[in-house]
UniProtKB/TrEMBL annotation:
It is a multi-pass membrane protein. Its main location: membrane. It comes from Aspergillus steynii IBT 23096. This is V-type proton ATPase subunit E. InterPro entries: ATPase_V0-cplx_e1/e2_su (IPR008389). One of its GO terms (biological process) is vacuolar acidification. Coiled coil: none annotated. Belongs to the V-ATPase e1/e2 subunit family.
Length: 75
């Protein structure tokens, strides 16, 4: 079962990947573009994953029972 440490571990992995992309990016004319693309891609993927993870972990809407007829649901 996933817990809150998944977010922290994922963040650490993204920071390490971003530092590696910064250090080992090929030198040359497009170095800044290459670095920015890699780091922004890593961060965007992490944010999307973290938002979906949190939405599933703490849903805003509670699930309804599917085995109750609508006319029998108390108001």
């Amino acid at each position: 079962m996933a817990n809150g440490w998944s977010l922290v571990i994922g963040l650490i992995i993204i920071v390490v990947a971003s530092v590696l992309a910064w250090v080992f990016s090929p030198k040359g004319e497009n170095q800044t573009l290459f670095r920015s693309t890699l780091i922004l891609s890593f961060v965007s993927c992490y944010l999307m994953w973290a938002i979906v993870f949190m939405a599933q972990w703490h849903p805003l809407i509670t699930p309804k029972r599917s085995n109750i007829r609508p006319e029998r649901v108390p108001q």
